[in-house]
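Support request, please re-run this one:
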Amino acid sequence: MLGAPFVIGARMMQMAMAGPQPSEKERRETQRMVAEKVAAAQQSALAFNQAMFKAAMDVPLAMMSANPLAKSMDTVASAAIKPYSKRVRANRKRLSK
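Re-run finished. Output below.
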């Protein structure tokens, strides 16, 4: 959550500095950015579906506890966000060099 604004700002600055005719390196960075977003979205959807399936299987047991679905939904949300978080951390590290 804290790394995303840095990565967005760094990439926006790079694109602004490149102007209307970016170099080959800048075009590759833009292509990488798009490819990473597509891959993260695919991995997030898969992780979300797997976590939802597991949560659905756990519902009968969870119904016996005081707060049956809160933990399951937190697990689902965490699974869906994990692919994005991993990439944001890596991009922040790489772009801050």
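Helices lie at 3-18, 24-62, 70-95. The longest helix spans residues 24-62.
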